[in-house]
Design brief:
With 426 residues, the chain is α+β, with helices and mostly antiparallel strands. It has helices at residues 47-54, 65-73, 99-112, 117-135, 138-151, 164-169, 172-182, 198-209, 258-269, 275-283, 314-330, 335-352, 356-368, 376-384, 388-398, 414-423; strands at 6-9, 15-20, 26-33, 78-83, 88-95, 188-194, 231-236, 242-249, 287-296, 301-309, 404-410. The chain is built from 16 helices and eleven strands. Residues 169-343 form the Peptidase M16 C-terminal domain.
Length: 426
């Protein structure tokens, strides 16, 4: 994990990161843009994600989707794109001897996409089916409902993929308008990680991306968080299993206690020997999956536990989770438990950073979000500094009734909601 990254800024203000990895056989090219659904207005909610799809529809050099996908399929490369609340990303991972092909391919798509009206109309059907897939997948949909509950009707609470009506109303003018105002050299980072020579790659990126014009990006609105008591959102659906998210508002990515918070999530439900996995799954047999995780963006954050359980076990499962939340607040964890969580984080980080795509996103995500870019070793030092006392302090800070939220998908009605409201005490 000792790879050091190198950062340069081109004349047009585009930031370039290179991460040479001595023994790698692959190279990953990643472009991250600091825009996503939090940057949208209500009438174009979903446009960041729709635009991401349209980059794969053809350039002058590769006039259609077949020509675009064939370029990397012919060399066994992997490639994709994604949109989140604050980032849109495009990547390609190839055998190191095909680095030039990957750079040519991704820069062509990023700079020369045609965004044709005809393709746009066709893609509406694809994106609506993607939306339908989410709505039919409770494990994914319940997370969206949880954010809907936290942030309500503001960009942070809207769906990344958008609503059907919006998708049907997108046109080329709206797309180009969003592209021009949100894709700029100021909020874009290009990274190449793997078996590379940094200087050679920087020169190539300079040539490929030099026609990207200097421009400023539109800022996003800041998120308002207001909550006075525990809140519940129930989505009634006839399902064989109840899916729910039970969590609390927590810290954004710049908060000094974020490392303590992430270790606490590991202790709670981060792996198969975590407190909740043992309590809810092993001892009580209520769930197949249960996990706790942390979500942190530039201005929001939460800790959440998600599970899929028997329909008649919702109250019992919630009771067991709240019991663990209270336990962290009322009693210090043991030094042994903290060491186990730290070693788990170190181990998973070491394993994942063997891959060139993980190295690329490790550095580039920090850079594009405006964090101080730390190496893995620097991050691990901060994780190592977390004490038993820090964990208790974080628990006391976040496990409060007015920060508690529960989103549920299952065959439940209003009566059930009242029962659950009586349960949500912490």
């Amino acid at each position: 994990m000792s790879n050091l990254f190198h950062k340069t800024i081109l004349k047009n203000k585009l930031r370039v990161l290179t991460v040479p990895m001595k023994n790698a056989n692959s190279v990953t090219v990643l472009i991250l843009v600091g825009t996503g659904s939090k940057y949208e207005k209500k009438d174009v909610n979903g446009i960041s994600h729709f635009l991401e799809h349209m980059f794969f529809k053809g350039t002058k050099k590769r006039p259609n989707t077949l020509k675009i996908s064939e370029t990397l399929d012919m060399i066994g490369g992997e490639y994709n794109a994604f949109t989140s609340k604050e980032i849109t990303g495009f990547w390609a991972k190839v055998d190191k001897k095909h680095t030039d092909i990957a750079l040519d391919w991704i820069s062509d798509m990023f700079l020369n996409s045609k965004f044709e009206a005809q393709e746009l109309e066709r893609e509406k059907g694809v994106v609506i089916e993607e939306l339908n897939m989410y709505l039919d997948t409770p494990t994914a949909y319940v997370s969206e409902l949880f954010e809907d509950l936290l942030y309500k009707d503001q960009p942070a609470g809207w769906r990344i993929v958008g609503e059907k009506e919006n998708i049907l109303n997108f046109n080329r003018e709206k797309l180009l308008d969003y592209y021009k105002s949100h894709y700029s050299t100021e909020n874009t980072v290009v990274c190449v990680a793997g078996a590379i020579n940094s200087r050679q790659v920087e020169d190539k990126i300079g040539k490929y991306f030099n026609k990207l014009k200097i421009s400023a990006a539109e800022p996003k609105l800041s998120v308002k968080e207001e909550q006075a008591k525990p809140e519940i959102l129930i989505h009634h659906k006839t399902t064989d299993q109840t899916h729910f998210c039970l969590g609390v508002r927590a810290y954004d990515m710049f908060h000094p206690q974020k490392y303590a918070l992430s270790l606490m999530a590991v202790i709670l439900g981060g792996n198969m020997s975590s407190r909740l996995f043992i309590s809810v799954r092993e001892r009580n047999g209520l769930a197949y999956y249960i996990r706790s995780s942390v979500d942190a963006t530039t201005d929001t954050g939460y800790l959440v536990t998600q599970a899929g359980i028997k329909n008649d076990s919702l109250e019992k499962a919630i009771g067991l989770i709240l019991q663990e939340y209270r336990g962290l607040k009322n009693r210090k964890i043991t030094p042994k438990e903290l060491k186990k969580a730290k070693d788990y984080v170190k181990g998973t980080m070491a394993l994942s950073l063997d891959a060139t795509d993980t190295q690329a996103s490790f550095y580039t995500a920090q850079e594009v979000m405006g964090e101080k870019v730390l190496t893995p070793q620097e991050k691990l030092k901060l994780i190592d500094k977390v004490t038993v006392h820090d964990i208790k302090k974080v628990a006391e800070d976040i496990f409060l009734p007015e920060k508690l939220n529960l989103a549920v998908i299952g065959p439940f009605d209003k009566k059930e909601k009242e029962k659950l409201e009586a349960l949500l005490k912490i």
